[in-house]
Amino acid sequence: MAAKTISAPIEVYRYDPSRDRAPRYDRFTLEVEPHTPVLTALLSIRNQQDPSLTLRYSCRSAICGSCAMQINSKSRLACQTPIGPEIERHGRLVVEPMRNQAVLRDLVVDQSSFWQNYRKIEPYLKLDPRQPMPEGTPNPMTPAEVDRFHETPRCIACAACYSACPAVESDPAFPGPMALAKLYRFVVDPRDRATQDRLVRIQTEGLWLCLRCHLCTEACPKDVQPSERIRDLKELAIAAQGGTERGSRHAIGFKENIRERGLLQEMKLVRQTDGLAGLAGQLGQGLRIWRKKPETTKRPPAIEDLAQVETLYRELDDPTEGHR
Ligand code: FES
Fold first, then answer.
1. Which of 294, 297, 244, 290 is nearest to 270 (CA)?
2. What is the model's pTM?
3. Ligand 1 pocket by C-beta < 6 Å: which residues?
4. What digits encode the pLDDT tens for the residues 5-54?
5. Distance from the CA of 78 to the center of ligand 1, in angstroms?
6. Which domains does the chain have, with CATH numbers?
7. What's the CA angle centered on 265, arms 263 and 268, to 5 degrees?
């Protein structure tokens, strides 16, 4: 019996910056089986309908990371994304190049910024040249030590996280989720000799620009969980250097602020983050808010069951607390 097919309407982003004044979307219709990967459909379009369609791919097995693109506005691997569920959910299939990188042509982007941001934070093992490891030494890490970074080696550098990241979009100097996840891998490597230096440097090189939106973790096809690793890096940075950087002062202040009343006290948080000078600098904005909505500038009353917040904090500080 022939496999059931669906008629798939596909809109593909087309743009050649050297020739076109603006991007356009070309429409194609293919008869495909629902499990057909988007990449297979695009190759079929290129082979049978439009040989000028430009895209990047290699392994077709979710290994090389070359075929990342926007599929119905999500950063995905084209070789790993079946068409059927996309058509079912969205009624159509729109394929576009990755975001946060300049388009070279059609679905191919210039990855220079992605790699430059990656290289600049030096995510590789730094050994002490005065204490080289003797030749033939077996891996000196224990299984528990390796377990601390077991997700990060799964990364295939597809840049789906970079494409999905709003912090990269708002500040191109942000190293990006993949770079920070890889940095974490070496920060917790007991063989590395640059841990303290890395944790100090990264605080002024973009660590605190992460918005904690989790879009990188959602986009990652290999479940590396970059946003969790960035959270771990922030905790390690605070432990290494305390609240000396603006980002760490904000994180510490936010935590203490909520603990106090169960609600955010915004004026107090500005003071905790930027000091009195920072508060004075925002007086104009504060006055404008006060005129429009005076109630928002008042100190909020504590929530009713503040004891529950305290219990949550105690459990988060010591996860064994609630299970004793
Ligand atoms: S072609 Fe290699 S990951 Fe898709």
1. 297
2. 0.87
3. 57-60, 62-67, 77, 79
4. 988 899 999 999 999 999 999 999 999 999 999 999 999 999 999 999 99
5. 7
6. 6-108 (3.10.20.30), 112-131+142-241 (1.10.1060.10), 246-323 (no CATH)
7. 150
